[in-house]
Design brief:
Elements: E1 10-14, H1 17-20, H2 28-33, H3 50-63, E2 68-72, H4 75-78, H5 87-102, E3 106-110, H6 118-122, H7 131-142, E4 151-156, H8 158-170, H9 186-203, E5 210-217, E6 220-222, H10 227-244, E7 251-255, E8 259-262, E9 265-267, H11 285-297, E10 303-307, H12 315-334, E11 339-345, E12 363-365, E13 372-374, H13 376-387
Parallel strand pairs: 1-2, 1-11, 2-3, 3-4, 4-5, 5-7, 6-8, 7-10, 10-11
Antiparallel strand pairs: 8-9, 12-13
Length: 390
């Protein structure tokens, strides 16, 4: 059976600024990575040096057959000190936008992907009286370089940010699956919702921009007798953030695996096939996430798959995972779900928030020379994109 995707579908790959640029020295995470006895096992350092090598990365996206690239603007670079906007950094990111246009690529720009300026965190972060207004000011400073951009993600995975905040407050450590984390810090969640709405107000002044945010979809599935508990887990950790998007221009879906909830909470799927992150190999997560999101936000809000992929050292496994994920996505589209594009995570093997071990990339990067090597999975995926079908 052939799975065919709509005309004009966006086929892309995604990155995050801190994970690929390198030497993001004014960010809060850089400070954490380089602190004495850091909780991070590895540092980002030069990362993939994409700050300087972005033209090569865009060439790869185009040459393998994709038509879209998602990348982030790093707030800590744009505003390295309170109230100081770097014109040079804004010009750098504008060159990236124009580089996409020159190659026939649709840019999907993310304004906040987990990291903030070190000074912002030192001042108390999101829940201070000035947190939301500071973010609004940053978004306003970025507006001039977004001319012609159609897709803008305000905040990446706000539910993960709020859950991580709760975890750090408690001094706890959990498995690297969102469903195993404590409920969100609601004060942080509320501040992020307000920041998102403030950003959308600013972005609305640009004629072409569609704005939304991306949510980490956890595919909560109920074991026998845990239906009510599963609904509560979904409501607090995911659904309240999806519901915010009901009036947005689009919603970003980000899905990797599932979380099975039993009467006592998350269950370890014993004997399950695992990825390098320890997550269950479950490509059907994407279809489940897209259908659940569509039910929450309603039929008038388009969906953009802003992240989906697998951490594996076996590139054939990456093809297997992606083929099955796209097959499920096509089923959802055939059933009427309005999906506008699929952006694979990630373009590059990059810094995965404390570790270089999980390799999600369609392209490998030599840690010494930064040489990019296109994997067979990238060629396969590019072929799917060119054909518009599986």
């Amino acid at each position: 059976m052939t799975s065919t995707f709509p005309g004009g579908f966006l086929w892309g790959a995604a990155t995050a600024a801190h994970q690929v640029e390198g030497n993001n020295t004014t960010s809060d995470l850089w400070a954490v990575e380089n602190a004495p006895e850091s909780i991070m096992p590895e540092r980002s350092g030069d990362a993939c040096d994409s700050y300087h090598r972005w033209p090569e990365d865009l060439d790869i996206v185009r040459d393998i057959g994709l038509n879209c690239y998602r990348f982030g603007i790093e707030w800590a670079r744009v505003e390295p000190a309170p109230g100081h906007t770097s014109r040079a950094q804004l010009a750098h990111y504008r060159r990236m936008v124009e580089g996409c246009f020159e190659r026939g690529l649709t840019p999907v720009v993310t304004l906040h992907h987990f990291t903030t300026p070190a000074w912002f965190r030192a001042a108390g972060g999101w829940t201070t009286g000035e947190g939301v207004s500071r973010f609004r000011d940053y978004v306003r400073s970025v507006l001039p370089i977004l001319d012609g951009v159609e897709w803008v993600c305000t905040i990446n995975e706000p539910n993960m940010l709020a859950m991580m905040s709760a975890m750090l407050k408690r001094g706890e450590r959990h498995e690297n699956v969102a469903g195993a984390m404590p409920p969100p810090d609601q004060d942080v969640a509320d501040a992020l919702i307000a920041a998102h709405r403030a950003a959308r107000e600013e972005l609305a002044t640009l004629p072409r921009v569609r704005s939304g945010w991306t949510v980490a979809n956890q595919n909560f599935q109920a074991a026998a007798g845990a239906e009510d508990l599963t609904a509560e887990w979904s409501r607090s950790r995911e659904d309240q953030f999806l519901d915010v998007a009901k009036d947005d221009d689009f919603i970003g879906v980000q899905a990797y695996t599932r979380v099975v909830i039993g009467p006592d909470g998350p269950r370890d799927p014993g004997g399950a096939r695992r990825t390098l992150t320890g997550w269950e190999f479950y490509p059907e997560a994407l279809e489940g996430a897209v259908r659940h999101t569509a039910r929450r936000v309603g039929p008038t809000v388009p969906i953009l798959v802003t992240e989906n992929g697998i951490a594996t050292a076996d590139d054939a496994e990456r093809v297997d995972y992606t083929r099955r994920a796209l097959t499920g996505l096509a089923r959802a589209i055939d059933d009427g779900v309005d999906v506008r594009g699929y952006l694979h995570w990630s373009l590059l093997d990059n810094y995965e928030w404390g570790s270089w071990t999980p390799t999600f990339g369609l392209v490998s990067v030599d840690r010494e020379t930064f040489t990019r090597t296109i994997k067979p999975s990238a060629r396969w995926y590019g072929g799917v994109a060119r054909a518009g079908s599986l």
